[in-house]
Specification:
Blueprint lengths: L8 E3 L5 E3 L4 E2 L6 H10 L4 H7 L5 E7 L5 H13 L5 E8 L5 H8 L6 H10 L6 E7 L4 E7 L2 H4 L7 E6 L13 H10 E9 L4 H10 L1 E7 L6 E7 L24 E5 L3 H12 L3 E5 L15 E2 L10 H20 L7 E2 L3 E4 L3 H11 L9 E3 L1 H8 L7 E4 L4 E2 L1 H8 L5 E4 L6 E5 L2 E5 L5 E5 L1 E4 L17 E11 L10 E3 L3 E2 L6 E5 L13 H14 L1 H6 L12 E8 L6 E6 L1 H7 L2 H4 L11 E9 L5 H17 L7 H6 L4 H13 L1
Length: about 650
């Protein structure tokens, strides 16, 4: 994760933005709106192509250079005017220097015709951290994925099938590092058969580079004073490089009824249900308890604890992308009323010198201050409202959430049915799809696809029995607020956490125990939580009158988290484990082999589990990842990160470890 400074803009007398980095305009001085429509919409034949789409169809546009978002908004406007109401648009765009929110608002004010769409974009556009930024718009009909960073680093990690390209960005003479053979090769790799491309430039090396990559290009009339521009289609592509078949996309599911079964109504299950319902699926969520969010997702306050690494590890990249999408989900679905959630900020303070060094290293990566910033102990105390003994990171947009409220909001959809008091114990594949059965082999429900959101209990269902899932007990202690303790304004995190008061209570936690798998609160875990509190803020601990608190008498809630050996969740399609071991047995002898045999996918079966203590942050995006695998959409994560959370990674490691044992 490298710094992504906001674009540095100069403004002309008539209010148009200019890039100070590249010395170039963002759009035509004559009419940027008409230029976009001429260059990118007309010469990709989008009016005709959008109108031809049937209900349920998808269309993917990719763009180099998001800039002011003008091209995106024009495509979105046209989509709403011409495409089927049940079709879905996915727009992927790269941007090395994103505009600050205030600059974006100022630039888009130039186009009052686009105000209905600009208003929706501005409502969710915030300080953008590096990496993938995922936006759900128009009630799920339009998805925007911004790849923030150098496109020659981000595009190679994109997994998508692009139908049309907007080859934009600053002019080749101003920005030569973008218009390269490497870019054109990535465009060919990502293109669907017959994908189109249009660009405002007619420079010879651009035309020749696209032709070399397999695009048939022609010069056409440019816009305004530009005499010519380029347009074309992909006619041929090179033989694709070998890609690991165990991480390939499963074949598309033929599901005319589009019926999905989600087992488990915790955060992962409810988020998955919401993502599929937005795409037109009829979803049944099967829950063994009387209501949603009764297990680990049922705590009264969950903390948006975005623990990052100073290094670009898969876990850190996954958490950072998930965090941004989670905040957008919360703002879209829950009121900040002091009961459902509060964006009060989270202070991650250093417990020792080693942790302080780590937090400083993260801050030095150059995140926008609206995402995170380093604060010394004095400022931390001012932000928190109580004395804080250590420096740390401040996440201004984070806070606490009542997880049951989020679960309820996510499944409040006419396409989602919650089926409670039913425990799924068996899965059976029939010609017409999947059946979920109870302990008596009686059918609970049937559907075209099944998603297991059953935490550690996933291993009790045969298709998931090979997954190395582990349950970890955690207990949260409830502390009655005092007039003095209610001065706490932010969440405090270090070895543990304490929340601002909700309904007259603070919540402190959470313990980690491997020796108990029950949900009965224990006095010893209350005691350890109280000790964590003293390390967070002795002043706050004193204000809570802890000397008079008896651990055995304090209310608490214990539940089981689920995790994996590498602390990453499992999100994606499932294989037949025994068939996988047999099909790729050659890897036991030679891990460098590159088999071509397709993975033995269990058609229509997916898993979304093992979010550990991060589920509040990671669950919303995990639903989008399941939907992308299922629907053939662009993945909302870099391909290496999607592979890092893929369920097949453990079977693959098992085979390769066999090499070293041999």
């Amino acid at each position: 994760m490298s710094p992504t400074p906001f674009a540095h803009l100069d403004w002309t007398e008539d209010g148009q933005p200019l890039s100070a980095e590249y010395g170039d305009v963002y759009f035509s001085r004559e009419s940027g709106l008409e230029e976009t429509r001429h260059v990118f919409l007309t010469h990709n034949a989008l009016p005709e192509r959008f109108a031809e789409l049937a209900a349920g169809d998808r269309f993917c546009i990719a763009e180099t250079g998001f800039g002011t978002g003008l091209n995106f908004l024009c495509a979105w406007e046209l989509w709403e005017q011409t495409a089927s109401p049940d079709a879905r648009l996915h727009f992927v765009s790269t941007e090395k220097h994103p505009l600050a929110p205030t600059d974006l608002q100022r630039a888009l004010a130039l186009w009052p015709e686009l105000e209905p769409w600009a208003r929706q974009l501005l409502a969710v556009y915030d300080d953008l951290a590096p990496g993938w930024q995922h936006f759900t718009l128009a009630d799920g009909r339009v998805t925007l994925t911004l790849l923030v960073g150098d496109l020659l680093q981000t595009l190679p990690e994109l997994d998508a099938r692009v139908d049309a390209w907007f080859l934009d960005g600053f002019a080749p003479a101003k920005n030569p590092d973008m218009w390269t053979p490497e870019l054109f090769a990535q465009m060919a790799r990502l293109s669907a058969p017959g994908a189109s491309v249009a660009t405002f430039t007619s420079v010879g090396h651009v035309r020749r580079g696209l032709q070399t990559a397999g695009f048939s290009m022609r010069k056409v009339k440019g816009y305004g004073r530009k005499r010519e521009m380029l347009a074309g289609v992909l006619e041929s592509s090179k033989e694709p490089e070998w890609r690991a078949p165990w991480y390939a996309r499963p074949s598309a599911i033929s599901a005319p009824g589009r019926r999905a079964l989600i087992i488990g109504a915790g955060l992962a299950g409810c988020a998955t249900a919401a993502s599929l319902a937005r795409r037109g699926w009829q979803v049944t969520v099967i829950e063994r308890h009387p209501s949603e969010a009764r297990e680990a997702s049922g705590n009264p306050q969950g903390i948006l604890y975005c623990k990052l690494s100073p290094h670009a590890t898969p876990l850190s990249r996954f958490v950072l992308t998930s965090y941004a999408y989670c905040l957008r989900t919360l703002h879209a679905n829950l009121p900040q009323d002091g009961r459902a959630w509060a964006a009060c900020g989270v202070l991650q303070i250093s417990a020792d010198e080693k942790e302080l060094k780590r937090l400083r290293a993260i801050a030095e990566l150059g995140f926008p201050p609206g995402v995170l910033r380093f604060v010394e102990s004095a400022e931390a105390g001012e932000l928190a409202g109580v004395s804080v003994p250590h420096a740390g990171l401040f996440f201004a947009g984070a806070g606490w959430v009542h997880p049951p409220a989020l679960c309820r909001a996510l499944i409040e959809n006419p396409r989602i049915e919650l089926l409670t008091n039913h425990q799924a114990l068996q899965l059976r594949r029939e010609a017409g799809g999947w059946q979920v059965l109870d302990a008596n082999s009686e059918r609970i429900a049937e559907g075209d696809v099944v998603v297991l959101c059953t935490a550690a209990d996933t291993r009790r269902l045969e298709p998931g029995s090979h997954l190395p899932l582990k349950a970890i007990r955690g207990q949260v202690t409830h502390l009655p607020a005092t007039p003095a303790s209610q001065q706490l304004r932010t969440v405090l995190c270090a070895e543990g956490y304490v929340s601002p008061a909700r309904a007259g209570e603070h919540h402190v936690g959470a313990s980690f125990r491997f020796d108990r798998l029950d949900s009965q609160p224990s006095p010893e875990e209350n005691l350890s939580n109280l000790e964590l509190l003293d390390g967070l803020s002795p002043a706050l601990a004193k204000s809570l009158n802890m000397d008079g608190l008896t651990p055995a008498a304090l209310p608490a809630r214990a539940a089981l988290r689920c995790t994996t050996p590498d602390y990453l969740p499992v999100i994606g399609p499932l294989v037949d484990a025994e068939a996988f071991r047999a099909r790729y047995a050659v890897l036991r002898k030679d891990a460098s082999k590159r088999p071509d045999d397709a993975a033995p996918w269990m058609e229509g079966l997916f898993v979304n589990a093992a979010h550990g203590s991060r589920g509040l942050i990671t669950a919303p995006l995990s639903g989008e990842l399941i939907a992308a695998w299922l629907e053939g959409e662009p993945l909302p994560l870099p391909r290496p990160v999607a592979e890092a959370v893929h369920p097949s990674r453990f079977l693959l490691r098992e085979l390769i470890r066999g090499t070293s044992r041999g």
